[in-house]
Specification:
Length: about 260
Amino acid sequence: MKVLHLDAFLSGHVFAFIFIFSRMGSMLMLFPGVGESYVPSRMRLMLAFLVSFLLMEPLYARIPIPPNDIAQLTTLIAYEVIIGLFYGTFLRILMQVVETTGSIIAIQMGLSNATILNPTFGIQSALPSAFLSITGLVLLFLSGLDHVLFRSLVATYDLFPPGGSLDPGDMTQTIIHTINKSFIIGIELAMPFLVIGLLMYVALALMQRIMPQIQLFLVMLPVQIWGGFILLSLTVASIMTLWLHFMGNSIKELFAV
């Protein structure tokens, strides 16, 4: 009859919990809506503990044997932390799309200097950027995309098996490609404002040449601001819908590799 020693049972499960928590804690630290600065650190820690505890049973078979060497233990934990930070950073880059779009809109509306604290990123942002960032975070949970994000946390164990080896080259290329694509998408989402802003400035330049004695830029500033608000109200639904599709497709592409 096989006897299971209590010390071996506890050591194995304690190691499994720490092993899972290393990755989950790193990812939830940067997770949209959870890793924000306004969320109390105790709440984030409790959520990371809860998620790690719930995942112990389904992931226990994948956890490597606890090593006897401290160097190997440090290597395993560091690998999990790096993977967690990598995927958390990936999600953060996808969230920055609305920040880029809002910054471009603010420039076209003449509100680039009207800044406010953006609670989503914990920085000073222009008014359209803060508005789109908060709206995107709310829609992320209302649309059910947060379920996809939470499932993707577990799917990282298929993409990056526990105890595997890091590939810094591929990880770096993924981050660079994501930043490049996110910046392009941010510009494309703000394209209506760029086109209308360009047409307005061309018309304004022609009018200024005809009537040089009048400061038309100061006269047109209220029109520019109010026109920007009207255009934003007409396009905000399309902007956020396209961003949600982009975020969902980007996550699917990452795990389809």
